[in-house]
């Protein structure tokens, strides 16, 4: 009876009836959706040029490269410049987590450029304090030509995972030689060389918008309004506003389009060859490689759960939360009170002392009642005790009553015509 049952399942390691791991070639290309979210942070670091095994390498083998960083849906309006942008830049969203804010939440931040010269001389442990003068502006322009203004964090989890995967790949390559598995050794070498080509083709640095002149301009304060009706007010200079909020975030790649197409083509062929070779490894190396890919996919999944702030070096900016206490929690003071868009909008007007940006960014409906409310809000912007919600409700009721009292004109009779 036991002999008959054992015949139902593979037994041993031989190629005829034993357990096999032919699916190792399939496991090597699994996890594409997981790796896709890490492509840009991975390829922005020079560590991406290390030879290593990459889960789902086909995620990098795209026909085109993204010209800029992904953005979030939001409305960005300059309080004084009146510039309106219908999206929130990638680094600004990382800094403020605006896309994750609750409905009608209000936050106020002061964002300033950190001392650039101190940052440039940090390696020599020399710290200097200089004012934001023309000399410092010259240093900033020179610095951007040779370095990314927002580089990947040197100790980011993705960089650590890249180094770990390289060491694991080297260990697996040595193991393949010890067990005399030429197919596994060649597969690991081919996949590692493909990762180098993919890294060269995908390597990029963030290119932020810079003002072309050094002339004095008005303040660059901006207001962010999320799709959930949350408001984020940022007090900043025009340089900061241009870099983080109103200017485009472009990707500056190391190689041009023609070299990219060539490297991706060669990398695709190498990945296909390595996948075939992985299916012809011996039993021991197939187990090892399956374990490596399973481990790497688990690590990338864990990194996806970490905050994005851990992946980028944002030390160029000093961000301070200066939200007044009365504006926190959307101004809700008790369990029976609910958040209100009108109250949150009023808080934003109190901070900016302006209402023109409300009309320009279409933050409020364009009606007579709302226009009157905005004029009243402008007059009372220094009065924190003004009942903004109550006044809006009165104006709405008045507009409805006026509309109900207006008689509907009767059409003329044929005799009157």
TrEMBL record:
Transmembrane segment boundaries: 158-178, 184-204, 259-279, 285-306
Keywords for this protein: Membrane, Transmembrane, Transmembrane helix
Protein known as: Uncharacterized protein
Lineage: Eukaryota, Fungi, Dikarya, Ascomycota, Pezizomycotina
